[in-house]
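ok so I'm stuck.
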Amino acid sequence: MSEARDRLGPVTQNTSDTPTAPADRTSAPAAHRAPSMVDAAAEAYTDRLLELNPSLATELGFPGHETDYPDYSPAGHEARVAMIRDTLTLLSGLEPGDEIDEVTLDAMRERLGLEVEEYESGWALADLNNIDSPPQHIRAVFDLMPTDTAEHWRHISGRAANVPGAIESYIASLTAAAAGGKVAAARQVRAVVGQARKYGEDGAGFFAKLAAEAKLDGGAALPDDLAAALGDASSSAAYSYRRLADFLEGQLLPQAPE
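replied:
not stuck anymore, here's the structure
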């Protein structure tokens, strides 16, 4: 599913595309309003969403998923939509207790319903554009990760090591979508080919620079073992983006509509 829609995030008392900050979930409820069953359903959805989308957990500042990625494969999409359908079934049996509940229910039912519709259309697996799709998300999450300590860099190294798996799961979905006649426009495919080659470029690409320029807070060098692990992981991540570019250009572009 599109990660743009993931920014539904913690939806309780929040109907914009800007996700609720972590503090909103952990602070005590206002004294005049006890948490409702609708609030509980929204919180349960959010917890499950963060399990399925570790990148979103990083974006929102929740710890515990620092090295992982979502499963972008058809099976990952299926798991996501199954969770959404379960949530919609739960919501269908709830009645709002106040105006806040009404807003929460309306927002969740509408936006989660749209996700189910997108999945059923077959286009969710074909998610590809030059701004807001997995090729950008997989790389951009590194911009949100702290870099002060050796532990921070171990998280970065671990996530870089998982880039190849994320890319392969994404390619699996694009392949399945194309088999069903769903392929993004050729101009979008070409744009992402260029992005992927830039990310994966030897020496000057994002991942090459990530390893070469890694420093602790204050400018100290990384421990030798960590620097070596980061170098290996970054090289693998860069290669996976070059592989993605080759797949898009060689296999998907010939099927893409102009």
